[in-house]
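Input record (one chain):
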Amino acid sequence: MAAATAQELAEPWHIQLHAVISAGDFTSVFIGQVTGHHELVAVKAYQSAALTDGDRGNRLSQQVLREQCAMDMMLGAPHPFVTRKCFAVHDAARLFVGMELVGGGDLMALMQTMGPIGTAWARFYAAEITLALGHVHSFDLFYRDLKPENVLIAFDGHVKLCDFNSCVMLRGRVGSTPPPEHTCSLCGTPEYMSWEMVLGRPSCEMSDMWSLGVLICEILAGVTPFAAADGTVNSLVRNIVDPTLTIPDHPNIDALSEDIIRALLAQNASERLGARPHGYRAVLEHPWFGGIDEAAVLRKEVPAPWVPHMAVGAAHAAGPSGDPLQAHAQGRAIAAVTRCSWEDDDEQLVPCLAAAFAQEAVVSLHTGNAPPAELPAPGA
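The corresponding structure, as predicted from the sequence alone:
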């Protein structure tokens, strides 16, 4: 849906929640609709009480704030393969973030249903994910949690990168000067963490390219390169830091597939495929992609290999398109003037969130009958 007008922001939003998509201890995701708007949206609901629950609440608050900062920055330059934020509002008990509804499940569910998929499918998904990462990186954002569960399949079969609550902003990422910032935090899902991250060394957006290499291998072979026979995290970490990289033996992994996986999993981040100054373009120029046309991919002219059944809603029109270099420049310009509270002190997190969710909402659960007096608690 379009951004809110000044008149809309002067009055409470009326939101109807139609059905639960997922539920957890602190958050639930609903199919929702803003009164007066035809478009269905995904509404992520956070319990306000959970945000003030000691250290655990501070961690959750930081994640919510990171996601809001990242998605707000990218509103100025939308991308066809990145989930778009529609609104952020609150009622007495919850915070609500409205995002475009992506109804085809995630890449993990697709792989679990179909098993390892061939090179053509893998190339299609990897190209769109690479463009999404390049867009995120253009805002000086380090995504930090690329995994198949965070790659959604839209109604038209194209991907949407979601879940930005692990993002951090790295200043000084243009070229090689001034010296680029890094972070030493351990963040993400172990199977997809980079060599430098699991060792506690400084990491930057090149860790996302490592995760892309893991993901390409998993799409092709059904397993990650570092899968441990005993299933323990300790063995997984030992495999990640082992200088000898063993690529799974699978018919889908030919010489070019192995080459791009090894190039993305280089332990020296500065030598990793996708490193600056060429960035994501170097990844797409690898022979494994067969000389794909970036502009055609961005315009969604490459047919999706699988299109989900339309269980909810209607197909959306093709998303924003354009020259990725222009999107990159837009991201840099926005990042240069953005002042985000990425690492606020704990006592400042809730006030920051209150400002981010300043608009009041009137929320009801719509079942076709009279809505109940209370919204069901997450996990109910």
